[in-house]
Automatic annotation (TrEMBL):
Coiled coil ranges: none
Identification of the protein by name: Glycoside hydrolase family 5 protein
UniProt keyword list: Glycosidase, Hydrolase
Provenance organism: Cerina litoralis
Gene Ontology terms: biological process: polysaccharide catabolic process
């Protein structure tokens, strides 16, 4: 091609020519992807105007269920179906009856799986407060059924959380019996049979370990009638902090005297409030062979009554990093609180967020932005080895 004519033209025409030339060269050097390649690297587009994220990858071929399969408990570790140690990380939804319930759907779960790179969802069925399970069990059952089905469809794990602060044995047996009968054949399901037993101090408890142990044995019997294998997470006293007490007298048999298996114990922490003393309790429990699952945690404190603008419950980054290292070192799975819109520092989303996902940074609170980055960084560093 003779370029002398172009060189004699004004600068603007020269610039246009160079741009057009680069476009032609680029098209020649980057042929269209094959159908297979396109399917492996699907970019999810927000129909409401674009997500502003160019690196959203579909995870259909590497879902947590495909990677790890049927989980089990051996010693103080959670193992995959192929007997490899597993550490899972996920998000806890907010109480089912309050703001944030709009995110309990398959589209939001897909977004969390593909964009945030979470491996499981924790679904807290609120029990005692207004509009909770005790007041409206049918609505609660419908919502949790939809959530479990969505998790199964998305091939992620789901913790079915009885989000109570007091014992309601008969209602819990009915609830978990229904869940186990309907979904116990799916490896996705994990049972958390009592959220946070309450108390004023570690010495002034509303439910002590012998009472919680007896309660757990009853619920284990109910679940195992239909589901012999999926993990059951049992509570520990004082807001799931006194794991050392459970370690001194762990559950060995259910209420019918049958040996138990695949039982883990819940530990909750908030980094601004809890530190080395609680980790020492947990270290003691691990040394006694107690398997721990951190089913609820956060970088903030426990002052949830304050709105975000008051800065009353800010993250403690140094403390969180110590907790993160401890969980990583011990292969302990954890759920971050919460995927809600309540005006508190720990919430991840603003009320304007799309119920189906497709969230941009303008939809995410500061903690939500951190949460997304955290899970994606964890994914990029490499999840626990799978069963490939």
């Amino acid at each position: 091609m003779n370029y002398s004519f172009v060189l004699r033209q004004p600068l603007i025409y020269k610039t246009i020519f160079v741009v057009l030339l680069l476009v032609v060269v680029s098209c020649k050097e980057n042929p269209k992807q094959t159908q297979t390649e396109s399917e492996e690297h699907k970019t999810i587009v927000n129909p409401e105007g674009g997500i502003g994220l160019k690196d959203v990858i579909s995870s259909d071929r590497n879902t947590p269920i495909k990677r790890y399969g049927q989980l089990k408990v051996v010693g103080n570790k959670i193992l995959s179906e192929c007997d490899k140690p597993v550490q899972l990380a996920g998000m806890s939804l907010f109480w089912h009856q309050w703001s944030g319930k709009e995110f309990w759907n398959a589209n939001a779960f897909r977004w969390l799986r593909d964009d945030w790179k979470i491996q499981y969802i924790r679904a807290p069925i609120g029990v005692e407060p207004e509009d909770g399970y005790l007041e409206d069990p049918l609505t609660a059952q419908t919502i949790i059924n939809n959530a479990v089905k969505a998790a199964i469809d998305m091939e992620i794990y789901i913790i079915v959380d009885w989000h109570a602060n007091d014992i309601h044995l008969d209602q819990a047996k009915d609830f978990f019996g229904r869940i186990a009968k309907e979904y116990g054949g799916y490896p996705n399901v994990i049972y958390e049979i009592f959220n946070e037993p309450s108390g004023n101090t570690p010495e002034d408890l509303d439910e002590k370990w012998p009472q919680l142990k007896q309660y757990s044995e009853e619920i284990i019997t109910t679940i195992r009638e239909y589901d012999p294998d999926n993990i059951i997470i049992v509570p520990t006293p004082f807001w799931d902090q006194l794991v050392d007490q459970a370690a001194k007298n762990p559950i060995a048999k259910d209420s019918k005297g049958e040996p138990v298996k695949n039982i883990a114990y819940s530990l909750h922490f908030y980094a601004r409030e809890h530190g080395e003393q609680l980790r020492k309790r947990a270290d003691f429990a691990l040394s006694k062979g107690l398997p721990i699952w951190v089913t609820q945690c956060g970088r903030v404190g426990v002052n949830f009554a304050k709105p975000r603008f008051e800065n009353a419950n800010l993250p403690d980054i140094k403390s969180w990093n110590l907790w993160q290292k401890w969980m990583d070192d011990n292969n302990i799975s954890y759920s971050k609180w919460s995927l809600g819109t309540k005006d508190e520092t720990s919430s991840s989303l603003y009320p304007t967020a799309n119920p189906n996902g497709y969230w941009t940074n303008t939809d995410l609170t500061p903690e939500g932005i951190w949460n997304r980055s955290h899970f994606r960084e964890r994914y990029n560093k490499g999840w626990s080895p799978g069963c490939d």
